[in-house]
């Protein structure tokens, strides 16, 4: 890749570059290398001036060590990208001849100087992208730390003995790289932030005298720091900063794993969580280091929505801003407004808030984190693109500043020549053009940073009122009558009741036992709640429905902080709770779904079925295979979140009835598919794979059938799932695993695992209530049937009502091959020739039993519509002329006529079956329209009542025309 300088060398830099070149040529001549200069090649010589323009450090290294140029060229280090492991292999070769610590220090430093020249050369000439520069610098640090550690460990064991654990096995130290090193994002002059740890207490063995493991590793750590950090005639390797360890400079240099875990659990501060996000094992025992990071992960990533993290980041940013102002660091591209640190804060804010639940955010590099913020819709794609572009521009600027003389700085230069050099390296004609571009990039970062991190109390526009006028009402600084008067003037029609609710909250045990920080958050939140409640059509209702949530989360005040930080989310909460007590109850029981209110665009746009399946699959992929508890939590959150989105869309009128049922059904299907996958994997890992009749191994020859509402794609809020399990394995053959069991037991246990995952009550509730009574022989039958026994039962033993249920049966999850075989069986059973008189008798008899047992008094008294008055309730589902009548007529039609019209078996939902009956000429278009409109109207009313937590009954004078029409058709088809 030949170098082509972006711009001609400016005249103002030519004399400076010529001076550097003259010094290098003099050094070359002194070393008797002048005649060999042509060996360096045109690519080296043509790029040399540009590199010298950008780096006094390179100029100095080439002058001090003239042979370096030939080593770099001969080893092809300037023109190629290093492969993984190259850095470590090169350093290993250098250290092979080292015999003492002095030689170790010299070898490390000279290796670093040469690699630093190589990296700066490729960066300045743009032969390496920003990511390659930071990766090479990080790889160099990793290699230096690891190989120096291994050399020093061997020497220490020889003189001090080998540190051992309780099992007598030798122990190694674990070196954690923090900050930019941990994220593999080192800059040209970064410090390296390290933490030293060791697995467990013990003593050394084999030395002149025994030392505790901690003492051994302290001595080893001190030697390692000296090997890297001490300044000698050859310079240094890396400046080492150990202040991120527990207790900082006053703490021990090395801690055991238990001591670290105890410290972070009991004393870990918010900024330490922020720092630990990037922690990575850079040297020592990698396996033990992985265990350590797993132990510390609960400290970093909370399993609940952790909006309190943003407050800690804001405090940290405020502290940095004060330091910036005090030291005049506004021109610092890292710490100043719109600097590198703000991009990192944006990413880490989302990581700390959501990372406990969204494992895709549990990664170190900021660019990867930003990508996930776009992928998972935490930030718009455009915002992420702007942040990434600005971040890379600033990192390139940072490298240009540090390349000048290998100095740790992020400050823009003030002298004209340095300014011209930076502009040139960055590809600009002059400083003003570069400064304008830099200002534009920093402004973008500052804007996005304000959107994520800024304190809402800093906003004074009309969109984010503070509602401070309600503070006296909440705090009680006014007397009771004055508080009632203000509540009344604010729009509360029952001010006395509103005051009672406020006083009840203040006097509740949960509020009285709150910690100081939580109480402060509640005191900030409540005036906002009161102020926004007055914006609702019914302030009293809004307050009444949200107050149970406030009390429920009082001791988990991060939720209060979330709503305080996001007024739009609080507004959405009030709107939804005012509209539906069911939603209010769901959010109160499962406040984790408050996260969904942060994105109104997503809240009112439930995803399509493929998006649902993919989203849940990706979420579960981020969970360890053996972590069933977390898998179940992900499933439950997924359902709660998406059901909330469906309900919100239904209330907002953006989702019609049919789509509501579609989405609720798709959510269930997506969950069942993953539950089956999880249960199958667990069972096969334990027992191996079951076998088919031909002896081959089953490839999940199992299906979950859905009956009733889920089968008919008509789920409502709170519907249970009518399920049947079928397998196609050999019931007698044993599985092929280490713990084999008979196929029948395997599939029964598989069914039990599925039900367990769906039914089990966790802190997030159960997934679904499951009803298995529609399986062959009902509750007395096998939990899981083979396809053969299911077929035999349907052909020979099933009652008419069971064939009615089969009309709405379909496969929800499982084996496609078995699914096709079930569909063939369903068509065979349903399309058989039937005696229509006997069929009418069976269907009518079953319907009458249901009316007698489940209908209202009016229906039990008869089905004459004239008797249905306003005083007599109408059960939308069970009464004459209601939902079940329509369903029974459709089922009767399918059983009676599908033998001649098999197209009636294509669908399982009533609306499309009715379309098929019309298209076949079996029912008039007018009658079909009447039934469909009645069916939709009843179901819409039932959905509305469910969201209002009311039973599915309305006054008897409603839906009179629909009921008359349905009863009339019933009497034509199935006369009593």
Structure in words:
By secondary structure, this protein is mainly alpha-helical. The chain folds into five domains: 81-300, 2-Layer Sandwich (Beta Polymerase, domain 2), CATH 3.30.460; 308-454, Nucleotidyltransferases  domain 2 (Four Helix Bundle (Hemerythrin (Met), subunit A)), CATH 1.20.120; 468-589, Four Helix Bundle (Hemerythrin (Met), subunit A); 609-830, Beta Polymerase, domain 2 (2-Layer Sandwich); 836-973, Nucleotidyltransferases  domain 2 (Four Helix Bundle (Hemerythrin (Met), subunit A)). The chain is 59% helix and 6% strand. It is built from 42 helices and 14 strands. Strands 2, 3, 5, 6 and 7 form a five-stranded mixed beta sheet that branches. Strands 8, 9, 10, 11 and 12 form a five-stranded mixed beta sheet that branches. A two-stranded antiparallel ribbon has the order 1-4. Helix 13 (308-327) runs antiparallel to helix 14. The longest helix is centred in the first third of the chain and has 31 residues, at 130-160. The radius of gyration is 36 Å and the shape is elongated. The chain starts with 10 loop residues before the first helix and ends with a helix.
Question: What layout of secondary structure does this protein have?
Answer:
Elements: H1 11-30, H2 41-54, H3 56-64, H4 67-74, H5 86-95, H6 101-124, H7 130-160, E1 162-163, E2 174-177, H8 179-182, E3 192-198, E4 204-205, H9 213-229, E5 240-241, E6 254-256, H10 257-267, H11 270-276, E7 280-284, H12 286-300, H13 308-327, H14 340-354, H15 366-375, H16 381-403, H17 416-425, H18 431-453, H19 471-475, H20 480-489, H21 495-507, H22 509-512, H23 516-533, H24 539-552, H25 558-565, H26 567-579, H27 581-589, H28 600-603, H29 609-621, H30 628-652, H31 657-687, E8 702-707, H32 708-711, E9 721-727, H33 743-759, E10 770-771, E11 784-786, H34 787-796, H35 800-807, E12 810-814, H36 816-830, H37 836-854, H38 857-861, E13 873-875, H39 883-897, H40 910-919, H41 925-947, E14 953-955, H42 960-973
Parallel strand pairs: 3-5, 3-6, 9-10, 9-11
Antiparallel strand pairs: 1-4, 2-3, 2-7, 8-9, 8-12, 13-14
Domain Glutamate-ammonia ligase adenylyltransferase repeated: 47-293, 572-823
Domain PII-uridylyltransferase/Glutamine-synthetase adenylyltransferase: 315-452, 866-949
GO molecular function, one term: ligase activity
């Amino acid at each position: 890749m030949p170098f082509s300088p972006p711009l001609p060398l400016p005249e103002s830099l030519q004399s400076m570059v010529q001076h550097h070149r003259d010094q290098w040529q003099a050094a070359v001549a002194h070393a008797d290398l002048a005649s060999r200069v042509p060996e360096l090649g045109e690519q080296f010589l043509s790029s040399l001036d540009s590199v010298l323009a950008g780096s006094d450090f390179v100029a100095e290294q080439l002058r001090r060590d003239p042979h370096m140029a030939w080593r770099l060229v001969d080893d092809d280090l300037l023109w190629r990208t290093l492969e993984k492991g190259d850095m470590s292999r090169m350093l290993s070769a250098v250290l092979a001849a080292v015999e003492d610590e002095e030689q170790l220090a010299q070898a490390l430093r000279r290796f670093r100087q040469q690699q630093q020249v190589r990296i700066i050369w490729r960066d300045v000439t743009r032969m390496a992208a920003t990511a390659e520069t930071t990766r090479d610098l990080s790889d160099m640090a990793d290699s230096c730390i690891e190989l120096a550690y291994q050399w020093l460990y061997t020497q220490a064991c020889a003189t001090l003995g080998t540190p051992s654990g309780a099992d007598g096995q030798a122990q190694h130290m674990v070196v954690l790289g923090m900050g930019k090193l941990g994220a593999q994002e080192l800059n040209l002059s970064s410090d390296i932030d390290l933490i030293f740890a060791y697995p467990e207490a013990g003593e050394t063995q084999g030395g002149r005298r025994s030392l505790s493991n901690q003492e051994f590793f302290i001595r080893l750590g001190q030697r390692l720091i000296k090997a890297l950090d001490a300044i000698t005639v050859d310079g240094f390797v890396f400046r080492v900063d150990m202040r991120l360890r527990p207790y900082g400079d006053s703490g021990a240099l090395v801690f055991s794993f238990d001591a670290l875990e105890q410290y972070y659990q009991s004393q870990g501060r918010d900024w330490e969580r922020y720092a630990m996000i990037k922690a990575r094992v850079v040297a020592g025992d990698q396996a033990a280091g992985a265990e350590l990071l797993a132990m510390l992960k609960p400290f970093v990533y909370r399993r609940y929505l952790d909006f309190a993290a943003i407050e800690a980041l804001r405090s940290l940013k405020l502290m940095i801003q004060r330091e910036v102002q005090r030291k005049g660091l506004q021109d610092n591209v890292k710490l100043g407004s719109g600097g590198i640190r703000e991009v990192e804060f944006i990413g880490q804010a989302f990581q700390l808030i959501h990372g406990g639940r969204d494992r895709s955010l549990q990664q170190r590099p900021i660019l990867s984190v930003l990508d996930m913020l776009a992928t998972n819709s935490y930030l718009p794609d455009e915002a992420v693109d702007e942040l990434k572009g600005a971040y890379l521009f600033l990192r390139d600027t940072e490298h240009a500043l540090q390349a000048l003389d290998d100095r740790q700085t992020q400050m823009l230069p003030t002298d004209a020549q340095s300014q011209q050099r930076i502009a040139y390296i960055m590809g600009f004609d002059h400083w003003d053009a570069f400064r304008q571009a830099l200002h534009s990039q920093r402004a973008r970062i500052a804007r996005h940073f304000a959107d994520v991190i800024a304190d809402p109390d800093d906003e004074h526009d009309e969109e984010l009122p503070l509602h401070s006028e309600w503070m006296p009402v909440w705090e009680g600084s006014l007397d009771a009558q004055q508080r009632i008067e203000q509540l009344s003037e604010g729009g509360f029609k029952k001010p006395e009741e509103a005051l009672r609710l406020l006083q009840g909250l203040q006097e509740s045990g949960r509020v009285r036992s709150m910690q100081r920080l939580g109480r402060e958050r509640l005191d900030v939140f409540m005036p906002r709640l009161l102020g926004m409640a007055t914006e609702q059509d019914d302030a009293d209702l809004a307050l009444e429905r949200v107050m149970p949530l406030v009390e429920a989360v009082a001791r988990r005040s991060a939720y209060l902080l979330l709503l305080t930080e996001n007024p739009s989310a609080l507004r959405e909460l009030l709107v939804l709770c005012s509209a539906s007590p069911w939603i209010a109850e769901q959010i109160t029981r499962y406040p984790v779904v408050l996260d969904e209110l942060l994105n109104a665009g997503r809240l009112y746009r439930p995803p399509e079925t493929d998006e649902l399946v993919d989203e849940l699959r990706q979420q579960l992929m981020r969970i360890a295979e053996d972590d069933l508890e977390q898998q179940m939590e992900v499933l439950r959150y997924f359902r709660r979140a998406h059901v909330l989105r469906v309900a919100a869309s239904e209330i907002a009128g953006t989702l019609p009835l049919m789509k509501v049922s579609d989405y609720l059904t798709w959510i269930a299907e997506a969950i069942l598919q993953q539950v089956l996958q999880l249960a199958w994997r667990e069972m096969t890992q334990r027992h191996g794979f079951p076998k088919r009749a031909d002896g081959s191994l089953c490839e999940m020859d199992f299906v979950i059938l859905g009956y009733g509402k889920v089968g008919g794609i008509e789920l409502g809020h709170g519907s249970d799932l009518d399920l049947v399990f079928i397998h196609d394995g050999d019931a007698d053959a044993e599985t092929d695993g280490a713990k084999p069991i008979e196929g029948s037991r395997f599939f029964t246990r598989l069914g039990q695992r599925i039900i367990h995952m769906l039914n089990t009550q966790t802190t997030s509730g159960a997934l679904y209530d499951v009803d298995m009574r529609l399986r062959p022989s009902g509750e007395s039958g096998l939990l899981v049937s083979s396809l053969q026994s299911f077929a035999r039962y349907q052909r020979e033993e099933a009652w008419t009502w069971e064939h009615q249920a089969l009309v709405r049966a379909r496969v929800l999850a499982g084996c496609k091959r078995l699914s096709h075989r079930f569909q063939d069986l369903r068509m065979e059973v349903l399309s058989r020739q039937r005696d229509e008189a006997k069929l009418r008798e069976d269907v009518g008899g079953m319907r009458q039993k249901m009316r007698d047992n489940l209908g209202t008094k009016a229906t039990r008294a008869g089905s004459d519509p004239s008797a249905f008055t306003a005083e007599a309730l109408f059960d939308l589902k069970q009464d004459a002329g209601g939902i079940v009548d329509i369903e029974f007529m459709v089922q009767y039609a399918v059983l009676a006529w599908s033998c001649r019209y098999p197209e009636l078996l294509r669908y399982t939902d009533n609306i499309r079956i009715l379309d098929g009956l019309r298209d076949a000429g079996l029912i008039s278009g007018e009658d079909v329209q009447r039934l469909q409109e009645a069916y939709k109207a009843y179901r819409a009313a039932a959905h509305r009542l469910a969201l209002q937590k009311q039973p599915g009954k309305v006054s008897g004078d409603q839906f009179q025309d629909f009921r008359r029409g349905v009863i009339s058709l019933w009497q034509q088809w199935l006369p009593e």
